């Protein structure tokens, strides 16, 4: 209870208190109500910067030559690098007579090859595996998942809608460069429901371990916070600095925001919370309002309230995007446009500097081969790169050796769509404080008989390590056991589990970068570095693209130095 004789506070302190108690969105609403926040804007850029797209050109390259065939160079004068460089900034034909070896055929590597070839560079990609895409991967029926110490075969049915994206699985609306490539390459997109208010929030330490419908928690949290703030405003302690108009405007805003009683400014519950029995289909109590969760009950367990607004975080929205039929449709589309430059099953053994540029020694089909070029863009994850012989500077090598990666992992099951038929959950994510962390409900093929449910997306340090160290069957058993605490029918419904722990995947050894890059954003003579780990969008495909643009820009500056 706020005491009337407490010290009076001014507008600024009042707004700061709102921000601390209810979050930035409520504070901004209060600012608008007071006439202090009518115009809001934001901006951002990447450490590895950003871009727009052009069209393609072809430069023939032989992947087994000891040097890349080049044309005569073209003199283009000086180049002025702009902030956030992008295709269209770089001088046309600026790569004529120059050659680049790209290590790795993930999104960063393919972006680099595609854009460099358009500038006239002779390019080649060396890829250690037999597929393009890196961590952009989709698992379907019959696919084999090989980890360092296990092998699994996916047993989903053969439907085109039955797939599992163990790596990137959603696209933010503002990842404009990735989306631009999708348009250019004809990759069809569909909605990905990220935040579904019908999904569940579960904590073993709250509400007797019973999962709560997300919209109920959200509505009661807003209502209780709004009542608390309205009570504070109605205390004389605020009258000294808040005008009558300020007070009236904020109270009106809080009534709408929290669904308060307009006469008493109390939160007495709201239809926003849903109706009694809404967690299951068949309720006969749609007209019965749910009992209000008191603020002290909501605050008793921090995990529950932390997940309510996850979709407001950077790169998250309630509604996002995904390619139809699997995320690897993007990788496949890229690959179709750069196939002629790619040598697969080429395992890099040494990265060397030469007087003319770079020399890469690699193995393919048991043979040791080498390739020389003017420049190299290395997109190999630092976890793998640190063990490859090289001529890197000590500063570059130190940052590579110490670069930390997430051990994020996922598991998926095939199942009848009980979440739709029995619980009215169509897409979205349920949260739990158990190790599995999240359950993802498919956004594709809604209403069909079966679907692929992601039974765990784990990135917390200890939980991810534990999952990675388990056998595939142990992962299935633990995911089903934990999932059953959220959906009681889980064990009897889900089948054909398949998992992937990125820390155990050869030539990856990690899911995404966690460290902040500095030295690796700079050239090491004629060697440049790229990958999502070198952007401020770590873990996102857009970050890989931005890092590729940064590397291309650094090469362009060196060419025109």
List keywords for this structure.
globular, de novo design (two linked rop proteins), alpha/beta, 17% strand, disordered N terminus, 561 residues, 20 strands, 29% helix, FAD/NAD(P)-binding domain, Polyamine Oxidase, Chain A, domain 2, four-stranded mixed sheet, five-stranded parallel sheet
Number of domains: 3
Q: pLDDT below 50 for ≥5 consecutive residues: which ranges?
A: 1-8, 36-64
Judging by the overall fold, what is the CATH architecture of the largest domain? Alpha-Beta Complex
Which topology of the largest domain does CATH recognise? Polyamine Oxidase, Chain A, domain 2
Structural class: alpha/beta
**If strands are numbered along the chain, what order do they take across the biggest sheet?**
9-2-1-13-20
What is the tally of helical segments? 16
User: What radius of gyration results from the CA coordinates?
Assistant: 27 Å
Q: Tell me about the biggest sheet?
A: 5 strands, parallel
Q: Residue share in helices?
A: 25-40%
What is the CATH C-level name of the largest domain? Alpha Beta
Q: Based on CA inertia axes, which overall geometry fits?
A: globular
Average pLDDT for all residues:
89
Distance between the termini: 68 Å
What report would you give on this structure?
The N and C termini lie far apart (68 Å). Strand 1, helix 3 and strand 2 form a beta-alpha-beta unit. The protein has a five-stranded parallel beta sheet with strand order 9-2-1-13-20, covered by helices on one side. The chain has a four-stranded mixed beta sheet with strand order 7-6-16-17. A four-stranded mixed beta sheet has the order 12-11-10-14, with no helix packed on it. With 561 residues, it is an alpha/beta fold. The protein has 16 helices and 20 strands. The longest helix has 20 residues. It folds into three domains: 118 residues, de novo design (two linked rop proteins), CATH 1.20.1440; 136 residues, FAD/NAD(P)-binding domain, CATH 3.50.50.60; 165 residues, Polyamine Oxidase, Chain A, domain 2. The chain is 29% helix and 17% strand.
């Amino acid at each position: 209870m706020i005491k009337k004789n407490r010290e009076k506070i001014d507008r600024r302190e009042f707004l700061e208190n709102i921000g601390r108690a209810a979050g930035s969105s409520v504070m901004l609403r209060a600012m608008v109500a007071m006439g202090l926040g009518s115009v809001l804007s934001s901006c951002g850029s990447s450490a590895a910067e950003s871009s727009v797209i052009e069209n393609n050109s072809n430069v023939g390259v032989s992947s087994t030559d000891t040097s890349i065939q080049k044309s005569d160079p073209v003199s283009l004068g000086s180049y002025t690098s702009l902030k956030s460089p992008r295709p269209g900034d770089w001088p046309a034909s600026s790569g004529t007579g120059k050659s680049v070896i790209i290590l790795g055929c993930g999104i960063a590597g393919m972006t680099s090859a595609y854009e460099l070839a358009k500038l006239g560079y002779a390019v080649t990609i060396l890829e250690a595996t037999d597929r393009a895409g890196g961590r952009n991967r989709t698992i379907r029926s019959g696919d084999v998942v090989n980890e360092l110490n296990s092998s699994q075969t996916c047993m989903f049915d053969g439907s085109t809608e039955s797939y599992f994206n163990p790596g990137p699985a959603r696209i933010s609306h503002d990842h404009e460069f990735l989306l631009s490539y999708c348009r250019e390459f004809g990759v069809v997109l569909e909605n990905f429901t990220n935040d579904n208010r019908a999904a569940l929030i579960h904590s073993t330490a709250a509400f007797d371990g019973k999962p709560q419908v997300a919209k109920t928690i959200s509505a009661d949290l807003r209502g209780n916070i709004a009542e608390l703030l309205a009570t504070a405003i109605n205390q004389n302690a605020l009258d000294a600095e808040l005008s009558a108009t300020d007070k009236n405007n904020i109270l009106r805003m809080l009534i709408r925001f929290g669904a308060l009683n307009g006469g008493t400014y109390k939160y007495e519950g709201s239809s926003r919370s849903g109706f009694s029995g809404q967690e299951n289909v068949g309720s006969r109590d749609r007209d019965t309002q749910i009992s209000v969760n008191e603020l002290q009950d909501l605050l008793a367990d921090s995990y529950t309230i932390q997940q309510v607004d996850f979709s407001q975080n950077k790169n998250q929205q309630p509604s996002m995007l995904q390619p139809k039929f699997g995320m690897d449709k993007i990788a496949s589309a890229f690959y179709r446009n750069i196939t002629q430059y790619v040598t697969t099953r080429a395992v890099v053994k040494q990265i060397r500097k030469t007087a003319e540029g770079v020399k890469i020694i690699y193995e393919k089909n048991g043979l040791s081969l080498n390739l020389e070029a003017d420049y190299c863009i290395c997109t190999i994850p630092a976890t793998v790169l640190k063990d490859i012989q090289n001529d890197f500077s000590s500063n570059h090598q130190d940052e590579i050796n110490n670069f930390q990666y997430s051990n994020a992992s996922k598991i998926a099951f095939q199942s009848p769509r009980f979440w739709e038929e029995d619980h009215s959950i169509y897409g979205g994510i349920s949260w739990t404080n158990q190790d599995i962390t999240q359950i993802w409900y498919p956004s594709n093929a809604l209403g069909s008989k079966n679907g692929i449910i992601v039974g765990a997306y784990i990135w917390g340090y200890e939980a991810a390590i534990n999952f990675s160290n388990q056998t595939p069957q142990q992962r299935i058993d633990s995911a089903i056991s934990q999932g059953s605490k959220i959906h009681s029918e889980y064990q009897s419904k889900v089948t054909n589990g398949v998992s992937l722990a990125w820390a155990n995947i050869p030539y990856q050894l990690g899911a995404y970068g966690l460290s902040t890059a500095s030295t690796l954003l700079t050239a090491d003579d004629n060697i440049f570095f790229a990958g999502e780990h070198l952007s401020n969008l770590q873990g996102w495909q857009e970050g890989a693209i931005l890092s590729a643009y940064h590397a291309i820009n650094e090469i362009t500056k060196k060419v025109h130095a």
